Amino acid sequence: MAGGVDLHSHTTASDGALGPRELVRLAARHRVRVLAVTDHDSTEGLPEAIDEASRHGIEIVPGLELNTDVPGAEIHVLGYYVDWQAEWFQAFLREQRAERVARVHRIVERLTELGMPLTADEVFAICKEGSPGRPHVAQAMVKRGYVKSVREAFDKWLRADGPANVPRRRLTPVEAVAVIRRAGGVPVLAHPGLANRDEMVPELVEAGLAGIETYYPEHSVAQITAYRQMCARLDLVATGGSDYHGVHTGRASTLGSPHIPLEVWEDLKRKAGELRNQGQGTAKRAPQPPDGAPEPTQHAHGPGESDPPPSMPGHPRH
């Protein structure tokens, strides 16, 4: 299969600027042939993305991105090839999105206390049916004239240790890895160069982490080399993607960039097959589903959705 690979993108189901169909059409224009849709705490965009992809000859890798917290930083964990239609998994995601709504209320209250009155309704009007979060709050701050850009809103107010940021109900990285493994997916540490918490990797591997997002727009050449070596040493798959949200973020992210070799996607499929062969949702530390949820069940994939063959053996390309 000729064309590009992008294993990290967002739609209006979370904090992206484009709807799922628009994102897929943009991917087609950029000659992306394999696209992972990885919305925050949501798989709501997958059905439309899969349907649209079938019209363009694009493979959709079903995924999502879970936001977790550690002292002083956020750690994001990507999940690929999850059994996203499982009811227990969707119940877990609904709880995560409900907490996002509650957190928006707490953040706008904090901003009001800091002299920047803002209402939750203003934020929800921006995210519409998406999964609300700080990027939507930042956009509302720009509309009010409190800051000039989304980047300024984060740098001054909404960063992890910023004066307007408030904690959410805590989900740890280990718990996120466990949930993804329970859902039969491949957990991958997202953009580790931004979080600067590489010392956590061994613990996450012990919990079932299966990959590291190595190729990333804001990773330096030295970081990419270091993460490739780390993946080789720990038998992890090295993935990558644009983390495309749209121009509203102020970031220089382009769908399909940086260039991701086709072999990266093939390695990810092999890793998914390996994990499924080990046993549905079985991790090294036997994770428990959230709130005593039942074991997941398999569902058939829709057209245009990439499905790793369970029997395909292999090992990460280093």
Class of the largest domain, according to the CATH hierarchy?
Alpha Beta
CATH topology of the largest domain: TIM Barrel
Shape: globular
Mean pLDDT over the residues: 86
Radius of gyration: 19 Å
Summed up, the domain count is 2
What structural category characterises the helix and strand content?
alpha/beta
Spatial strand sequence of the major β-sheet: 1-2-3-4-5-6-7
Query: What string gives the helices and strands in order?
Result: EHEHEEHHHHHEHHEHEH
Describe the protein in words.
A 7-stranded mixed β-sheet has the order 1-2-3-4-5-6-7, with helices on both faces. It is built from 11 helices and 7 strands. The longest helix has 27 residues, at 87-113. Helix 10 (221-234) links the parallel strand 6 (211-215) and strand 7. It folds into 2 domains: 4-94 and 171-292, Metal-dependent hydrolases (TIM Barrel, Alpha-Beta Barrel); 104-158, DNA polymerase, domain 1 (Orthogonal Bundle). Helix 4 packs across helix 5 and helix 5 (134-144) packs across helix 6 (150-158). It is α/β, with parallel strands linked by helices and 318 residues long. It is globular, with a radius of gyration of 19 Å. Helix content is 39%, strand content 13%.
